[in-house]
Amino acid sequence: MLIALAVGVLGGCLTAAAQQPFAIGQVHYGGGGDWYSSRTSIANWLREIGERVRIPVEKEARPVRLADRELYQTPFLYINGHGNIRFTDAEAEALRRHILAGGFLFVNDDYGLDASFRREIARVFPRRPLQPIPASHPIYRAFYSLPGLPKVHEHDGDPAQGYGVFVDGRLAVFYAWSSDIGDGLEAGDVHNDPPEIREYAVQMAVNIAVYALTR
Questions:
Q1: How much is the pTM?
Q2: Pick from 202, 174, 165: which is nearest to 46 by CA?
Q3: What is the pLDDT of residues 5-64, one digit of tens each?
Q4: Residue 177: helix, strand or coil by DSSP?
Q5: Helix, strand counts (H, E) of the chain
Q6: Which burial class, exposed, middle or buried, applies to 96 when counting CB atoms under 10 A from its CB (0-12, 13-18, 19+)?
């Protein structure tokens, strides 16, 4: 019933958007971090969205640079990695404009980018600090009803926590910290995560996409 309702919502909200396959723009950032990691996760994620939500999707990640014109053809952006992130002034401004215009950014801490991401997002939105996202937020019920952010990879054992930046009441940046959803989207033999953890990661990833598409 929940899935049927969600598909109905999508059908009502995405009449125009559904004419184009849903794309995930993987941000090619500077600073030395491995922005290109999790490419198979994105392909798996797109496939799951297509099969579960029943909307057209692209088959692979779409690499994007924040200073390129093509950025504005990709509303949904994804940042992932283990290392340092550094935006130029022009990139920070472009990302700000993109998000203020209705774009959505999902950031997955693959363990190691936390400090640099927090520094850079504060440059992008100096007056809109990251806020903890409570388990009651609609992003956890956008398609599947979930109790909160999944803890996929242990890393240093801290509990998983979602953070966000809001624009006019809309959650426009969602940051999954100490969770590593991308890890759970890989094939089962990559990290040997239990099937139930991988399913939780997939459901959360689908929720994030559906939330971005319907807000």
A1: 0.90
A2: 202
A3: 334 445 445 444 456 899 999 999 999 999 998 768 999 999 999 999 999 999 999 999
A4: strand
A5: 7, 7
A6: buried
